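Design a sequence for this backbone.
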């Protein structure tokens, strides 16, 4: 596949209207033919307006993590293909018929609808390493009960009929402090080190 094919795929994703409850149009990353694929959960309320993934609070934390590997946000966005389990903002959680608290978790139908696009992205890119961020993204690839059982490890698994190295990361949301204290803090450091040592990372950021 070529970058032109990837751009055409993204144009098709932009036209998707399958999920009635979603609160935005699809939010996409740069159409870069990368051997590294980062998969988030879904855009937040700020991302839907800024039109790029991980563009607000969680993104600031995420890019601080990668800064420890010597890569800034601009370099990462230009070299790594960023996608998500769902591309549209799902809206806020509804409590007593009013939006409250954090973002709504996409439902099973929404995840299934958007999975067709994720499958095509994987087929187009054939990434060497996939970085799922947060439990929802990780659970699309492998079972996950507790983060401390999988963060800090690399797994060779099949994802949409493509085998790749899977290096999970916790979600950088401010709602979770797991990654700020041990064992989460130490396991996050191990996971980032695995990413830095991966051939795809070294080749991408020579």
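Sequence:
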């Amino acid at each position: 596949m070529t970058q032109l094919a990837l751009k055409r795929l993204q144009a098709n994703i932009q036209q998707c209207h399958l999920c009635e409850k979603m609160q935005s149009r699809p939010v996409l990353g740069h159409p870069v033919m990368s051997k590294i694929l980062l998969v988030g959960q879904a855009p937040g309320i700020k991302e839907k307006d800024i039109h790029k993934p991980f563009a607000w609070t969680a993104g600031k934390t995420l890019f601080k993590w990668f800064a420890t590997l010597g890569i800034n946000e601009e370099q990462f966005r230009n070299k790594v293909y960023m996608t998500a389990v769902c591309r549209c903002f799902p809206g806020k959680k509804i409590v007593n018929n009013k939006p409250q608290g954090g973002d709504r978790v996409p439902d099973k139908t929404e995840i299934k609808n958007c999975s067709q696009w994720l499958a095509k992205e994987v087929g187009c890119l054939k990434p060497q390493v996939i970085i799922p961020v947060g439990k929802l993204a990780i659970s699309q690839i492998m079972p996950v009960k507790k983060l401390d059982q999988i963060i800090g490890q690399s797994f060779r698994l099949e994802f949409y009929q493509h085998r790749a190295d899977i290096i999970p990361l916790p979600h950088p949301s401010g709602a979770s402090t797991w990654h700020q204290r041990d064992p989460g803090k130490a396991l996050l450091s191990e996971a980032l080190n695995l990413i830095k040592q991966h051939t795809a990372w070294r080749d991408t950021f020579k």
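Helices lie at 3-14, 45-50, 57-67, 73-79, 108-125, 135-139, 184-197, 199-204.
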